[in-house]
């Protein structure tokens, strides 16, 4: 068990982060809808009218607060602990979507929430201890090891392929394109955020790390990655239903981030096989809960679950591969008596 004092600080900050980020998804979604209604051009097809929408900026402010809390959490606890706790933001998002966006939440969705909470607790209890780091130069050595450089190179190649080949062809019909770009860049941004967070933490402790160019390099990487994430996450949220985007983004982003952290920071070095297995099993439970939570959100509306097919109530497989979830929902609402 590695639930130390620093892990506790990281855990509390991650909880606060999930609360703010979960709320930001809903606020931004409302802002995107309002901006699209006014301008007639959606963000998913290249519109940027949401930049003039105060509600969208409120959502951005809420997300920034959550991201700051998340940023600080990475300075205290390993990514294997902090990142999976993002599932709690999915719960917050689902509950708020039920009340604010009128997105259905079936009783099985409650089971999904419970699974996320239970899985998160197991992850917390089996979290590894953070390896002590004395300088940003030590982090630079980790970032330039061959294994991690291979990972970074693979991510950059995949992002270029997704952005320049798949996005123009099927970005608006396949949710994996936009969320894939966000997740790949997100794994690099988390590693840089963690490096920068540790650098600032050491600086506040009296060991100035800002004199080293490595700290500023990590800051530049964070800025580039976050801008790309924000752009493509906006496209994903505006093109597809929140119930589709959130779980897929969570699964891809968390899996890639844990992989990157294990490669770069060697989070599982010194961990027993039982603890690692417990974390992996708990993560699978969180994934299952997240998926269950969202695929059952429209259970009441979808007659396909009751054996009667209706083109206005597509299955989750259909929604994953085609069309705009919001457009389908609006079309359905227009045809209701």
Automatic annotation (TrEMBL):
Q: Name one GO cellular component term.
A: early endosome
Transmembrane ranges, per UniProt, are 6-27, 55-76, 82-101, 108-128, 148-168, 175-196, 216-233, 240-264, 276-296
Topology relative to the lipid bilayer, per the entry, is: Multi-pass membrane protein
One Pfam family from the UniProt entry? Mg_trans_NIPA
Assigned keywords, A-Z:
Cell membrane, Endosome, Ion transport, Magnesium, Membrane, Transmembrane, Transmembrane helix, Transport
Q: Which InterPro entries match?
A: EmrE-like, Mg_trans_NIPA
Q: What is its main location?
A: membrane
Lineage, top-rank taxon, reads Eukaryota
Molecular functions (GO terms):
magnesium ion transmembrane transporter activity
Give the UniProt subcellular location, in the record's own words. Cell membrane; Early endosome; Membrane
Tell me the function of this protein: Acts as a Mg(2+) transporter. Can also transport other divalent cations such as Fe(2+), Sr(2+), Ba(2+), Mn(2+) and Co(2+) but to a much less extent than Mg(2+).
What the record says about family reads:
Belongs to the NIPA (TC 2.A.7) family.
Quaternary structure, per UniProt, is: Homodimer.
Protein name (Swiss-Prot/TrEMBL): Probable magnesium transporter
User: Species name for this entry?
Assistant: Perilla frutescens var. hirtella (Perilla citriodora)
